């Protein structure tokens, strides 16, 4: 158990809908990262937050948004869902800010299926 | 643009064999970070190592070792005396200094047979 929790584990929804994925980092970790893993695109880095502020942005679509709250949990919002958004979404956390500084601890992922 | 190539799509070895997973990267940055991650059949992602571009020392952690060679833009991963539990997909990744331009390779699926 990495100490990072993600909810829900599975999510099935329809095209055009909006969903929110939630991530709670390990106690004491200030950085949260979001990744998407799909059959088509492989593993992609989406976005990183550090202590509430956006720190680095990857291949995150405009239909997607994220935020980190004062209690350090993070939410990834996916809207106007398309079939191609079906994927496993991972969250990871680390203590400090830089991607290259700290070991990352991954949550179990949320599997999103868009029908 | 940054790119990571893992030319080996799938590798099968017999238990106790040594195996090397190749990773070749492309970047124009002078400061960057390289990573390896493991994804076992259960699906979770496990961080294995990060290396910054200024540290070319090889690293050993138990049966795992990493060989970083800037001259050939490679960051190869060797498992010594492989075990069935090493069966997984292994991803190499690259990021710029502050985490932007973070890219993963396509992964290498390693099967260790008993």
In short:
Chain A is an all-beta fold and 115 residues long. Chain A has strands at 5-7, 10-13, 19-24, 31-38, 42-50, 53-57, 64-68, 74-78, 87-94, 105-106, 110-114. In chain A, the strands form two sheets. In chain A, strands 2, 4, 5, 6, 9, 10 and 11 form a seven-stranded mixed β-sheet that branches.
Identify the notable features of this structure and list them briefly.
heterodimer, A: 115 residues, mainly beta, seven-stranded mixed β-sheet, four-stranded antiparallel β-sheet, globular, B: 114 residues, six-stranded mixed β-sheet, 12 strands, 0% helix
Could you explain how this protein is built, in words?
The complex is a heterodimer of chains A (115) and B (114). With 115 residues, chain A is mainly β. Chain A is 0% helix and 52% strand. Chain A has no helices and 11 strands. In chain A, strands 2, 4, 5, 6, 9, 10 and 11 form a 7-stranded mixed β-sheet that branches. Chain A is globular and about 35 Å long. Chain A starts with a strand and ends with a strand. The model of chain A has no long low-confidence stretch (mean pLDDT 92). By secondary structure, chain B is mostly beta strands. Chain B has strands at 3-5, 10-14, 19-21, 24-26, 32-39, 46-52, 59-61, 64-69, 74-79, 88-96, 103-104, 108-113. In chain B, strands 2, 5, 6, 10, 11 and 12 form a 6-stranded mixed β-sheet that branches. In chain B, strand 10 (88-96) and strand 11 (103-104) form a beta hairpin. The model of chain B has no long low-confidence stretch (mean pLDDT 93). Classes of the chains: A mainly beta (115), B mainly beta (114). The A-B interface holds A 2, 35, 42-45, 48, 55-58, 88, 90, 92, 98-100, 103-106, 108-109 and B 32-33, 43-47, 50, 52, 91, 93, 95, 97-104, 106-107.
């Amino acid at each position: 158990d990495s100490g990072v929790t993600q909810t829900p584990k599975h999510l099935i929804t329809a095209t055009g809908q909006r969903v929110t994925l939630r991530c709670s980092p390990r106690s004491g970790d200030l950085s949260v990262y979001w990744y998407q893993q799909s059959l088509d695109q492989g593993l992609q880095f989406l976005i990183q937050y550090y202590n509430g502020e956006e720190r680095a942005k990857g291949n995150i679509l405009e239909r997607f948004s994220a935020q980190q709250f004062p209690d350090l949990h993070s939410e990834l919002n996916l809207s106007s869902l398309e079939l191609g958004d079906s994927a496993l979404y991972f969250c990871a956390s680390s203590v400090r800010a830089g991607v290259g500084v700290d070991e990352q601890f991954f949550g179990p992922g949320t599997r999103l299926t868009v029908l | 643009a940054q790119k990571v190539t893992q030319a080996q799509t799938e590798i099968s070895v017999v238990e106790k064999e040594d195996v090397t997973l190749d990773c070749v990267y492309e970047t124009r940055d002078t400061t960057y970070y390289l990573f390896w991650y493991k994804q076992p059949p259960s699906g979770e992602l496990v961080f294995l190592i990060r290396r910054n571009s200024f540290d070319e020392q090889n690293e050993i952690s138990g049966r795992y070792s990493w060989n970083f060679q800037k001259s050939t833009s490679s960051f190869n991963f060797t498992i010594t005396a492989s075990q069935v539990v090493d069966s997984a997909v292994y991803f190499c990744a690259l990021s710029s200094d502050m985490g932007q331009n973070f890219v993963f390779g396509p992964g290498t699926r390693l099967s260790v047979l008993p």
